[in-house]
Amino acid sequence: MGSRKTQLTVAVIGCGTLGTAIAAGILDPKDNKAYEIKRLVCTVGTESSQRRVETVFANHRSRLTVFTAEHNVSAVQEADVVLLAFKPFKRAEVFEVPGFKEALRDKVIISIMAGITTSELSRLSFGEQAVSKGEASLQSVRAMPNMAARIREAVTLYTSTPGTSKENIDFASWVFSQVGEAYPIPEKSFDICAVLVGCAGSLLLLAIDGLLDAAVAEGVRRPEVQNLVVNSAIGMMKLVPAGDHPGVLREKIASPGGCSIRALMELEKLGVRSAFTSAILAAAEKSKNMSSTR
Length: 294
Ligand SMILES: NC(=O)c1ccc[n+]([C@@H]2O[C@H](COP(=O)([O-])OP(=O)(O)OC[C@H]3O[C@@H](n4cnc5c(N)ncnc54)[C@H](OP(=O)(O)O)[C@@H]3O)[C@@H](O)[C@H]2O)c1
Hints:
Family: Belongs to the pyrroline-5-carboxylate reductase family.
GO molecular function, one term: pyrroline-5-carboxylate reductase activity
Order of helices and strands: EHEHEHEHHEHHEEHEHHHHHH
Distance between the termini: 34 Å
Structural class: alpha/beta
Shape: globular
CATH class of the largest domain: Alpha Beta
Keywords: NADP, Oxidoreductase
CATH superfamily of the largest domain: NAD(P)-binding Rossmann-like Domain
Number of helices: 14
Largest sheet: 8 strands, mixed
Radius of gyration: 22 Å
Helix content: 40-55%
Mean pLDDT: 95
Number of strands: 8
Strand content: 15-25%
Number of domains: 2
Bound molecules: NADP nicotinamide-adenine-dinucleotide phosphate
Low-confidence stretches: none
GO biological process, one term: L-proline biosynthetic process
C-alpha cells in the first residue's frame, strides 16, 4: 500500500452484527484521507442475511456484492484485505472449503474472531506442519472490537502476526478507527484485555438491569427510568478519562452518613467486586483456551 490514497477491495467473511458495523464504518469513513474502499464483497450464512446486508447498504450498491457462504472462496479471491468476522466455532468449516486457504495466501487478513490467536490463524491457513517448520508467513491482524462499533464508539484492541508490515497494520488500525478508537496491544496480554473490552459491557448491563429492578420494586416503570439510569452512568464514567481516579471518585460520591455509602457497603457484603473480578477471569480463561478447542 503506497503513501497516496489507496483504493482497496475488502471482503467481509461473516457479515453479521459486527461485520456489518465495521463495513458501514469503512464504506462511509470519518477519515477518508488515506484509503478508499473501491469494492466491498460480503458473505453470510443464509439468504435472509444476504437480503439484510443488501438492504443496509442499499446506498452503496454500486460497489457492494453480497454472497452466501458458498462463495467465500471467490469473495476472498477478489479482495486485497479479508475481514474474518464469522463465529470462531465456524472456523474449521470455513477454512476446510477447498481453495479457501490458498485464496488467503497473498491477502491481508484481519480477524475479529474472539479467542483466536495469530498462531491459530497461521495454523488454519497453512496447517500444523508448515507452522512448526516455520514455513507459514501471514500478513494478519487479530482484533477485538465491541458491539459499540454499531454507533462508532467501539474500543478495539489489536495485535499482529510477527512479520506483518507496518502499512498493513496501519490499514487495520484505520479500519477500527472508523468505528471508534483502536489500540495496539501485545498478544501476551490480549486475552484479559480483550474480555475487558469485549465482555465487560455485558456485565455492566447486568448491573443496570439490577438497578432498574429496584425502581420497579418501588413502583416506577422500567422505561420511565431506563435512559436516566444509563445516561447518568455514562456521564459518571466519563469523569474517569477526564482525569478522576475511579477509587477517589467513588469516595467523593459517598458522603459521610449518606445513601451511597450504604449502597456500596451492601454490594461489598454481597461480594460484588470480587464477583466482577471472577467473571472477567473466567472469560479470559475461556478466551485463552478457544484456539485449542477445535
Ligand atoms: N458480539 C460481540 O460483541 C463481539 C465482540 C468482539 C468480537 N466478536 C467476534 O466477532 C465475530 C462476529 O460476531 P457477531 O456478534 O457479529 O456474530 P453474528 O452476528 O452471528 O455474525 C456472524 C455472521 O457470519 C455469517 N456466517 C455463518 N456461517 C458462515 C459461513 N460459513 N461463511 C460466511 N459467513 C457465515 C452469519 O450469517 P447467518 O446469520 O446468515 O448464518 C452472520 O452473518 C465472532 O467471531 C465473534 O467472536 C464479537
